[in-house]
Amino acid sequence: MTVNYEEYVAGLIQKGRAAQKIADGFSQEKVDGITEAIAYALTIPETALKFGEMLVAESNMGVAKDKQAKMYGKVKGSFAQMKGKKSVGLIDSNAETGIDVYARPMGVVGAIMPVTNGEATPVVKSLMAIKTRNAIILAPHPKARKTNWAVTEAIRAVLKKFDAPEDLVQAIDPDYVSVESSQQLMKQVDFILATGGTPMVRQAYSSGNPAIGVGTGNVVCLVDETAEDLDKVADMIARSKSFDNATSCSTENNIIVVESVYDKWVAAMAKAGAALIREDSPDKEKILKTIWPESPANHDLNRHIVARPASEIARLADVDVPEGTRVIMVEENGGYGNEFPFTGEKLSPVAGVRKAKDFDDALDKMLQILEYQGKGHSVSIHTTKDERVTKMGEVIPVCKIVVNQPQSLTNSGSWTCGYPVSMTLGCGTWGHNSISHNATWKDLLNFVYVSREIPNWQPSDEALFSEKIRMAFQ
User: Quick one: pLDDT at residue 201?
Assistant: First the structure.
């Protein structure tokens, strides 16, 4: 069947615009009631689990119970941070500046989504759109098309129940999900909210329409010699790296450990369920060829290992690991880049591990890994020295630094950290992004600024410029 994707998407846009025109007249109370209803309905335990199971079955990636937990955390968290916040009409009035600020919707938003978080991302992005009185059209990854459609239908049922236009939330029909439909969507919407790999995000930015996108993840974790309770550190890393079989771009892909505590840390990781493949072991090459079958010619990931359990990856590689292994660690103390692929993102519960002489050496290794892949995204550190965190904040080119916490369970917001809950993590210009923060509903608003006259605030030159500067030009 030949599909005219331009016409198909134009039809969705037309319906979205009609629905958004109605939503433009919604009160704050109406908006808040709908978002609350969607957040509650989609996090009913059996509903959240159903969509988790559906995505695992469709994509063959991840863990259903972890996806259920992700629905709880991300959907409830997104609603919690928008609850009670103004997003309609006059949202701020400052008598001192004479400025009033009005919140206005953008129109029709196009949401491009990854397969890795295909259960929660459509809900979170829909909540963001409804809170800001926008319409949204969800474009899923082909391996999440059926799940995305089912989630969208559940959201539309809530909209209908609460007397709102169902077309405020639409999805690309599973039969039409394709690169072509996503490209047309990005060309025709008013704003693009893109979550995915770097090529897709760059395409969003080059579409000709305003966009927010995220960069490639390749998180580097540093464990220094001052880290307290290595068993606790190991538990955090293992939980983070194995959560949902490492579907998150925020998992610890590379771990750098100061050599004076390396052996103790390895032992602690073993107790936490992580198996170490030594540098000189023939198993290293087996794991490498299983993850990147055509290495060194290219480093295209084997799709059969993406977000699969560590034990399954070991079996595919014909490598023996202890029963209960949930993370595979591979020593990589050589160089960086294409000739050393373990320094890159692996999209699986496999981590590269390096020794460092001291903190400064670890910092240098971290910089070199990020230069290869992951610049702008995030890093973490387990330490008791605040000055080392400060040093990282000053020199490491990333937008998020996680301290003494499990990275993937923190990066996109959680109940125990201050990061905004989000499914779209800005990576700044380092990651070729337009934002450095976690995108939230506030990023889907236009603002109207109204100015009224205030008393003249022009300062004298004596008050504005120091005497030293004034004297220098006399």
Answer: 73
134, 458, 470 from 467: Cα distances, Å: 53, 18, 5
Give the alpha-carbon dihedral of 412, 413, 416, 418, to 10 degrees: 120
Binning the chain into helix, strand and coil, the percentages to the nearest 5 are 45, 15, 35
For residue 420, what are its two tokens?
A: 């905004």
* Residue environment code for 372-408, b if the CB has 16+ CB neighbours within 10 A, otherwise e: bbbbbbbbbbbbeeeebeeebeeebbbbbebebbbbb
Q: Where in the sequence numbering do the catalytic residues fall?
A: 249
pLDDT digits (tens, 9 = 90+) for 157-215: 999 999 999 999 999 999 999 999 999 999 999 999 988 766 777 778 778 888 888 77
Q: Which amino acid is at 219?
A: V
**pLDDT average, residue stretch 98-119:** 95
pLDDT the model gives residue 374: 94
- CATH tag for 219-408 (out of 3.55.40.20, 3.40.50.2300, 3.40.309.10, 3.30.565.40): 3.40.309.10
The C-alpha angle 95, 100, 105, rounded to 5 degrees, equals 160
> Do 372 and 383 meet the contact criterion of CB atoms below 8 Å apart?
no
Convert the pLDDT of each residue in 234-243 to its tens digit. 999 999 999 9
116 pLDDT tier (thresholds 50, 70, 90) = confident
pLDDT at residue 1, as a whole number:
61
Strands 89-94 and 99-105: antiparallel
**Section 111-127 average pLDDT:** 94
Asked if 9 contacts 185 with a C-beta cutoff of 8 angstroms, the reply is yes
Measured in whole angstroms, the distance separating CA 237 from the mean position of its chain's CA atoms is: 18
The residue ranges of every structural domain in the chain are 5-213+440-450, 219-408
Per the document, the length of the chain is: 474
**pLDDT exceeds 80 at position 425:** yes
Average confidence (pLDDT) over 340-357:
96
Mean pLDDT of 251-268: 98
C-alpha torsion 8→10→13→15, nearest 10? -70
Distance CA 11, CA 8 (A): 5
CA separation, residue 189 to residues 13, 48, 454, 468 (Å): 7, 29, 39, 54
Which class is domain 5-213+440-450?
alpha beta
**Which tokens hold the place of 233?**
């550190």
- Strand pairing report for 219-223 and 211-212: unpaired
pLDDT for the residue numbered 341: 93
Check: CB of residue 340 under 8 Å from CB of residue 295: no
